[in-house]
Amino acid sequence: MRATNPSRPSKQTAEFLAAERYKARFRDEKAKLQRAYCTLFKFWRTCRFKPCRNARACQGNPEACLKRGVGTVSRDAQWQARQKILDATPAGAGVPERAARECLPGEL
Would you say the pTM of this structure is higher than 0.85? Predict the structure, then answer.
């Protein structure tokens, strides 16, 4: 019988932790992108949440705001906004961040 080292996680545990880190990083980038798209499309102009209007940027719930307003934005404008985000992506961005940035606003 082979002895296991308790300080070293098993291969399955390491893969699980790596997958969880990927999901967390993707989720964080997705939230940042939702807020950026809401601000870029100027949804704050019609937002009922006063801090958004005062800051002239999304300050509330970007997921709900984007879901509510993305239908009013043409597909071409969404594509151009995505290209702007992709062009601004740093060269050292990780895989989860790049994967999130590949999505169109309506897919977030």
Answer: no
